[in-house]
Structure formats: C-alpha cells, structure tokens
Amino acid sequence: MSSKRKITVAYGDGIGPEIMEATINILEAAGAQLEYDVIEIGEQVYLKGISSGMEPSAFESLRETKVFLKSPITTPQGGGFKSLNVTTRTSFGLFANVRPCKAFSPFIQTHFPKTDMVIIRENEEDLYAGIEHRGTQEVVQSIKLISQPGSEKIVRYAFEYAKKYGRKKVTCMTKDNIMKLADGLFHRTFDEVAKEYPGIQTDHKIIDIGTALIADRPEIFDVIVTLNLYGDIISDVAAQVTGSVGLGGSANVGEEVAMFEAIHGSAPDITGMGIANPSGLLNGAIMMLVHIGQPEVAEKISNAWMKTLEDGIHTGDIYQEGLSTRKVGTKEFAQAVIDRLGQFPETMVPASFDKDDTTPMNTKVKGKPAQKKELIGVDVFIDWNEAGRDPNVIGEKLRQANAGGLQLQLMTNRGVKVFPAGMKETFCTDHWRARFSMADQSSVSHAQILELLGQINSLGFDTIQTANLYSFDGVRGYSLAQGE
Ligand code: NAD
C-alpha cells in the first residue's frame, strides 16, 4: 500500500489553475507524501445547471479523502447559484473557519509589524442559516440562530487550537450588550469552557470596539473566537491591516473533513497572464500539511517561502521599488521557493510546528442537563396599516382578545414599546408585535394560544407569525421590549 495521503484537489477558475500548479510543484519538490484526486468545481459546473457548483462525484471524493485543497472559483452572477463554499461547509459540517493573520514585515508593507493572530470563526450558524421572511409590505427579517452545542464546539476548538499551537490568549468577541440571548449564549459558553483551560488567558471584547482595535492595535490579539458574521468581517479587516490579503490561507475544519484554500478570489482581471501570486494557496496547503500529520514538510516550505520574500523575489502584487530585488511571475516565484527548500529566513522567525503533538483536538460537546421548560405567553406578529398606524387603535382592539386570561400586555413596533403609553414620536411601520401573557405570568396552554389566534383572526387582523414565550428553569427565555 502507498504511504501517500490521498487528497481531493480542485484547480478552480480564473487564476486557480495557475496557482494550484505552482503550489503542487512546491509540495512535490518538498517531499510531501500526497496523491491527488482531481475534481472539477466552479463556473463550468454551475453552467451545466448544477446549482451547488459541485458534481455528486466531487462529494464522493471528499467523503473518501476527507481533505480538500481548493483553488478559488468564480460564482456566476445572478440565477439561483448557491455559494460552493457555503455548500461545502454545511454539507460536511465544517464548523470552524481558521484564518491566521500575520505580518511579514518589512518585506510586506504593514503599519503593524508585530501582528500574529488567528481568527477562529463559527461557520455554520448565525445569520448565515439564511432563514428570511417578508411578512409585510415594509418589513423583512433574517433569523439569527445560535445554538449551545454550536457555540460550545467552536469555543472548544479555539482553546484546543491555542493549546496545540502554543498560543497564550483567546479573546471572545460578541455584541451581548445588545443581543443578550443570542450573543449572550456564546459569551457565557466561552466563560464556561475557559475554566477548563486555566493556562490560557482569556478576554472578551464587544465586537465594535474589538474591530476598531484590530484596525488600530492588532498586535494585542493572539487567538480570536467569534460568531459567523462578525468573524467574516473581522477576518478581512485583519488580513487588510497585516497586508496579507494576497498571502493569506484559510482552513475550514470539521470533525471529519477539512478544506484548505487562499483567502482571495479567482482574480479574473489577471487570469492567464502568469503573474498571480501563489502564496495564499501555498499557505493554505501548509496548514493542510500540518493537519494531515506532515509538519516537517510544512515547516520546510514555510521557511523557504519566507526566505524567498526576504530575498526580495516578489510577484507584482507585493513588489515594492527599493525593497524588492526581482519582479517575477507565478512559475518563477514557485521555482524560487523550490530553490530555497532547506533554507531558513534570517529576519523573520522561522516556522516551527510541533512534531510530537499528534493528539487530535478534543471538541466534543458536553452539552447541558435537561431544563424545565414552561410556556408562559406568546408574541403575535401582525401586519396592520390602518388608522394612520395609531398604536392606540390597534392596542385597544387587541385588548378585546382574551383566551382564559391570556391577554394583551403590550405592543411594540420594531422592538420599541408603543402601547400602552408609548411615545408619540416613535415611528411605526406596518409590522406589529403584540405580547400576550397571564397577568400573573403563570403557565398557559397551547390550546389557549390557538383560541387567542382565532379571536385575533375574527377581529380582522393578519397574523404573520407567532413566537411562544418560555421560561427555562424559571429563567425568562425571551428579551424584554425596549421600554417594557
Ligand atoms: P479577488 O480576490 O479575485 O480579486 C481582488 C483583486 O486582487 C484583483 O485586482 C486581483 O487581481 C487581485 N488578486 C487576487 N488574488 C491575487 C493573487 N493571487 N495574485 C495577485 N493578485 C491577486 O476578488 P474579486 O475580484 O472580488 O472576485 C473575483 C471572483 O472570485 C468572484 O467571482 C468571486 O465570487 C470569487 N471569489 C471566490 C472565492 C473563493 O473561491 N474562495 C473567494 C472570494 C471571491
């Protein structure tokens, strides 16, 4: 049997084939023990009418090899094409997006030469679940789903990553001062899991100030763990400030399958010119080598690559007059790296991956004991556009509904209390929420809610959505309205 590790490879679109060829040449010259199962993905597959951009055989290959080295692809504009990255992430449960952001100063220009951080972004939940509705003429909604196991898994991954790679601090970023339930769950999970890693410093930043700090003082961060949307945004901010947009690689990791790629796209503007920088994909491939247990090869390539940068051999995108010595194309750059295999950088810190630590990361979710769930009310969402949208008119009318004591407590519009005793200045849309509960907050039944909905319907209202109000072990499981 061959000792080579089989991986799935996709050459992708645009500059994809050029940078993949260069990357594989370097991998081979460095002695990586790899066998390649090449699959077709991207534009040509989309244009065949396959909306995921991936043929069923490509899924089969990934299921078998469990490791995917992927070039960028071009997503055709318009028409119901699905993002191939999102499909791969969700189909194979790639819950962690790992993006190292490192400065390669003075060889790559940056104002922050000491930056060396890793952003670990939750990859499956949040607003990216794509659950959206339009319930009224004026209002649409996207549902932000955050789960306890999803949060625990990514937070554990971040701490395990820090432990494995000798990182000292993990910073959590959320907006839990506003989204107390969703982001609060993520932050609380972080605090709980952190207790199991006493050797690692922890910190929490509200995402807005956290992002500002990444832009202004990125050197203070080590590992950052955050939710999907925030992670998407801060990854690009971090890559930009370190000057590594063209150089960065990233990994999407699941319990079984992992995908490695460059952070940039297919660069149609320079396709076929032979000038693309293969460094982003190469850095993705280096992460892959560590992942599959070939850290010596990863180290050798990383050091040769840094030495190439130090020697001033640069592709056009990073070429700087006075600092660079030679402007090269994709192939020459790859050859320069190959020529330096076995050499070390002299100014930058050489790469070192722990060769002894082959223990897999333990991201197993411990979960939570079952809690007592009690139904204590319902929020009824209504489309209403009459009587000049006077909250007192709709409020008084809804007061007529009463199902065994289940009665109107308040109404909000876009989250702000408008009835009873709202402020006349509050702007109202056609999207209303009516909150019903018992006066003493005691339990209600589903039958009461159904009766209530029937009454609201009889009063002539269009109910567009309901959300039950629960408590868990006596703790309120919903947010209070502004002004409640
Ligand atoms: P892009 O990253 O492809 O290009 C942005 C700019 O950076 C361009 O000027 C390009 O020439 C330059 N550039 C990018 N990579 C380079 C490299 N390796 N060497 C030298 N210069 C490089 O972003 P875009 O133009 O917004 O997107 C182009 C296509 O790529 C779109 O179809 C988009 O959907 C796709 N895309 C794919 C991925 C992916 O597959 N992971 C990621 C991002 C964008």
Write up what this structure looks like.
- There is one protein chain.
- By secondary structure, the chain is α/β, with parallel strands linked by helices.
- It has three domains: 206 residues, Isopropylmalate Dehydrogenase, CATH 3.40.718.10; 126 residues, Isopropylmalate Dehydrogenase, CATH 3.40.718.10; 104 residues, 2-Layer Sandwich (Alpha-Beta Plaits), CATH 3.30.70.1570.
- The protein is built from 13 helices and 21 strands.
- The structure holds nicotinamide-adenine-dinucleotide.
From the structure above, extract its key features.
single chain, 484 residues, alpha/beta, Isopropylmalate Dehydrogenase, Alpha-Beta Plaits, 3 domains, seven-stranded antiparallel β-sheet, 21 strands, binds nicotinamide-adenine-dinucleotide
Distance between the termini: 69 Å
Mean pLDDT: 93
- Measured by DSSP, the beta-strand proportion falls in 15-25%
Bound molecules: nicotinamide-adenine-dinucleotide
Largest sheet descriptor: 10 strands, mixed
Helix count, DSSP H or I runs of 4 or more residues? 13
Identify the strand order in the major beta sheet: 2-1-3-12-11-4-5-10-8-9
Q: Which bin fits the share of residues in helices?
A: 25-40%
The tally of beta strands, per DSSP, is 21
Structural class: alpha/beta
Flag low-confidence runs: none
Query: Could you give me the name of the CATH homologous superfamily of the largest domain?
Result: Isopropylmalate Dehydrogenase
CATH fold-level label of the largest domain:
Isopropylmalate Dehydrogenase
| Overall body shape | elongated
